[in-house]
Structures are given as C-alpha cells and as structure tokens.
Amino acid sequence: MTGAGKPSGALEGLPPSFHSLLDEADAATYMLVRSGTSRILAVYGDQVRRGKAGEAELLRLLLGRDGRGGLGGPTLQDNKVALVWHEDGLARLRFRFLQVIPSNGTVLPMECSNSASAAAMLAQFGGRHRVLEPCWHAENVSTRQRIELRPFGGDRIPEAYQVRFLASDRTRRALAGLAGPGVVRVRGRQVAFQPVLLGNLFLFSEIDPNLDAETLDALVGAGMEAARAVGFQPPPGYHPKVIPYRLLDSEAVPTVLTASFYLGERHRSFPGSAAMALCAYLAQRRSAPDQARDHWQVRHPSGQIDVRLGFDPSRGGALLRWTEFVTPVSLLAWGRVAMPWRDR
C-alpha cells in the first residue's frame, strides 16, 4: 500500500478513469465471479485493512452504507468474499474466504470451494501475473485447506475449474466425526445425525432431504450442543450446515440425493465443499473392498455434482489423498471497486 491506503501498482494496465476525480479516489482491484451458484467478490488482501476495520470495509462494499445496497445480493450465496494474496512469479496463492450474513452484518471465516476458483481467477488475471498457469496451488487461510485448481479454457478466460482438496491426517480424522452420532426427537420420531468438522461444521443426517423447519431447528440446536461439548468454539453468529441425504442403491455408481441448509436457507444447488465431504464420509463407511467408492454422484435441488475421490494405492486403497469436482465459473465484472469513504 502507498499513502492513504492506495494500492501500489495494482491498477497497472487498466483503462484510465472517466474523470480526474476518479483517478484520485481510493479504490481496490476486484473481480466479481459467478462460481457454481455463488457470486464472489475477489479482492487483493493487501488492499483491504486488517481486522475489524477490514471487515467494515467489506460490509460496506457488499451491503452498502445502509446495509441494503452494495455489490452483494439477497441471499447468502450472493454475499461472499475472497481476499487473495498472490506469491510473486509463482502459481501459488493464499486466500481467506469470508461469508457475510446480510441479515445482521456478521462476517465469518469459513470454507467455500467455489471461492477458491474466484481467488485463482483474480490471481491469474488481476494484473500481477503474466503467464497462463495450468494449475494453481492455493490455501484457504480460514480453514488451512490446501487446494489445487486447474482451469478449463486453454488460452481463454476459464469457464470451469477442477477443484481438488488435498487430504491430510487432520482431514481423515475429521471424517470420523467430531463426536459420536447424535439423535434428536421430532414429533415422536428419532432423527440421527453425525457432526463432521471439516472446514465448516456439517451435520450429516440420513433422512429425506425435504426438511421441515421444526426438524431443521432441532438438528441445528442438537448439533451445536454436541460440537461444543467436545471443545468446538465457534465465533459469534456461527451456524452449522445441515446436510440431509438419501443413498440411491439402484444406480450404477454410488449416488446420493441431498440438499444443504444454512441459517434456515436452502442452498440453490449444493456446496462443493459439502459434496466432497459427504462423499468422503460415506466412502469411509464402505468396508467391503469390492464396493466402488472413488466416483460419486451428488444430486441436489438444481442438478448434479460428480465427485471423485483419490486413495493411496500403496495402502490397499484405504488412505484418502484428495477429493475433487468441477465447478462452472463466469467472470461477471472486473476493474476498480470504489472505497471513497476511506478518503474522509
């Protein structure tokens, strides 16, 4: 950064402003990316202040001065941010994914596989890197998840990314469950669930994906209580993602019918991170060696996600090495996002 918080060299190569006043206005390089069904604002991390001051800037960008009129939208999927730090000359980046809750202005560090592709888009085309890379190596510093991102598009702006989450011992331990299975009683019936803390807190429950509000609330309450009981300390305003599912045994490949609920809102499609976590969790429970488990189909409210799992062949196929899927992307806008209030 240079004086008054202005970026140093970040706007190189962009067209001149429409007016001299805009040349002097505080602004940051940004990209607005549609990834899957999420809309993500990607900004260089060194152009946003740290801590609460930076969170306030992001809230102003997404929600506007009055909380109702910024670059965000009406749903949780429209209010996502990726802060990006790119290692000079290397196809490596770090990013911090932040979910903005428009109803109360909370900013939460979480996992989001779609935000990883938006981060790679900014690192590749934001003006600081000149070589088209076949693979970007990334880490979400919010969750410590390491990721490989491979663009589809050749020498053009990508239309999709292969998103591969690299597994670690921490990943494999997490898939065993944060605590033992839990049970809630709703209208006289028992509903079992398993908390899994893998980037986000997921509550997997093998029930009809068309959840009613009463069952959803009961699962959220019991899931958070079970997680806290074993030491999970979430930030204020944190909620788990509830993932009801049904296995379809008649399909040629393992297939799961599911949906995702967060803060009472059903996801327009299904989070990629949840799809990979759910398939890895279910694959781990398949003990028979002849049961196929490296290719899964996840059917959700608006389509299907094909998930691939990689296992270590040197250990009898038992050790999970990675999970991956392909997400469609679209570059919606790029340029400078105004922060004129920082000049005051």
Essential attributes:
344 residues, alpha+beta, Diaminopimelate Epimerase, Chain A, domain 1, 2 domains, eight-stranded mixed barrel, 18 strands, 38% strand, globular, disordered N terminus
Layout of secondary structure:
Layout: H1 20-24, E1 27-35, E2 38-44, H2 51-63, E3 80-86, E4 92-101, E5 106-109, H3 113-125, E6 136-140, E7 145-152, E8 160-166, H4 169-174, E9 182-186, E10 189-198, E11 200-205, H5 213-229, E12 241-248, E13 255-258, E14 261-262, E15 265-266, H6 272-284, E16 295-300, E17 303-312, E18 319-338
Parallel strand pairs: 2-3, 4-6, 11-12, 13-16
Antiparallel strand pairs: 1-2, 1-18, 3-4, 4-5, 6-7, 7-8, 8-18, 9-10, 10-11, 12-13, 12-14, 14-15, 16-17, 17-18
Explain this structure:
By secondary structure, this protein is of the alpha+beta class. It folds into two domains: 3-165 and 329-343, Diaminopimelate Epimerase, Chain A, domain 1 (Roll), CATH 3.10.310.10; 170-327, Diaminopimelate Epimerase, Chain A, domain 1 (Roll). It has six helices and 18 strands. The protein has helices at residues 20-24, 51-63, 113-125, 169-174, 213-229, 272-284; strands spanning 27-35, 38-44, 80-86, 92-101, 106-109, 136-140, 145-152, 160-166, 182-186, 189-198, 200-205, 241-248, 255-258, 261-262, 265-266, 295-300, 303-312, 319-338. Strand 6 and strand 7 form a beta hairpin. The longest helix has 17 residues, at 213-229. The chain starts with 19 loop residues before the first helix and ends in a 6-residue tail after the last strand. Residues 1-11 have low confidence and may be disordered.
